[in-house]
Amino acid sequence: MARKGPDYATPVRRILVSLLVLALLAVFLFWQIDSPRAERMRAAFIDRFVPSFDWVMAPVTKVSRMVAGFQSYARLYEQNQELRRELQKMSAWKEAAVQLEQENAKLLAQNSVRIDPALTSVSGVVLTDSGTAFRQSVLLNVGARDGIVDGWATMDGLGLVGRISGVGQSTSRVMLLTDPSSRIPVTILPSGQHALLTGDNTALPALDFIESPENLRPGDRVVSSGDGGVFPPGLPVGQVALASDGRLRVRLAADYGRLEFLRVLRSHPAEQLSDNGMLIPPPPADFIGPPMPPLDQLQEAGAEPPDGARDD
Amino acid sequence: MIDPARRRRILGQALFAALFLAILFWRLLPLAPGRIGWPGPDLALCLALVWVLRRPEQVSVLTVALLFLIEDILLMRPIGLGAALAVIGTEAARRREQRWRELPFMVEWLRVAMLLGLVVAANRILLAVFFLPLPPLGQVVLQLIATVAAYPLVAWLAGRAFGLARARADRDTRHR
Asked: Is the ipTM, as predicted for this complex, more than 0.90?
């Protein structure tokens, strides 16, 4: 190559450098044209090399977190006071929660509803940060090997964190809600309005496409709406907050300062409502009277319900 | 045996690559994932420019291209674009290195700042041309300012810790 000779100002070198730049731009064009394939190659590259650095990343991260922990000892007294205040508030809440739980148990017993057992989760540990200030994502140590699929919702213990975008064999990337390209359909709770949660690289993502903003109040609960079929509905996202520029934003429920263990929720394609008739069987035309008895009595009577009604 | 000049060149190249990868590794550490802070300086580009302007024979074009390509892949940036711009930037610096060597450091700093500004502007223009999502302008400008401010620091550290002094009277082996 040209770099071996001492005479590197020759035109040959210039041509080779131009060729190199052209080759890199060709790589860029390839990424631009066949983006899914290039992203798969990127995921495979990350998958191959990043987990092998785990043994050195883990101790460095641990030590830095321990230093941060020692720093927090300095404000032990304030934290104590704060915790006491919160404990008082919490005991009031606990009373309310117990009452609600009893009411809920009563209603559930009346309905004899089974909660959907399909919503299980895979837990993963955060491997790396995004490394740049313009993208907000983390890399998890679970991947296609563990059954992770693109688009699944990711939570920490408290609320929605983001969704999977990019899966390798043993790693997967979680695009956080604060990423500039994150768009999640949400419902704002007491008023039941739909909106789009738009990340814009700030700590508080904005709410777009609100039907009537005057019905919203800071402090309203925001949950995922499940529109579009990607996310399970009803996952807690955060609370509405009014920013100083007058926009409605969301204070996220997830602890974004301390993302360490994340849960990836399995979403099942069976939740797509493609065939209404299978889910809700039409009532027999000649039957007018009281509501249908429970299924087991029907079976004993020999009446076979349609297959789709029980296939959940 | 390998002659000393060649060995020094290979060692310098290895040291450069190791420092570059260490910076990349530090950026990837999950120290505070999810927290949105100020965009810090682009230390890797600073390091490459410092090294090219001090020891151009130790930083080959292929090394720069390969390292910046790895950085593009790991940081979820458009693959190849950052590497191409870094190669163009370091080549521009390398071509002017002989002339800049005699000038005071302030002038070098000023010209490096202009070069960095051009690289950032070219990156932004290309992103806009290809309809890719643009990062907010304010954050990009902040990062540029931080990078320019970090340049003397990186140069000083490289001079003190790795012997990359600026004046080189006795090692001028090339002819122009």
From this structure: no
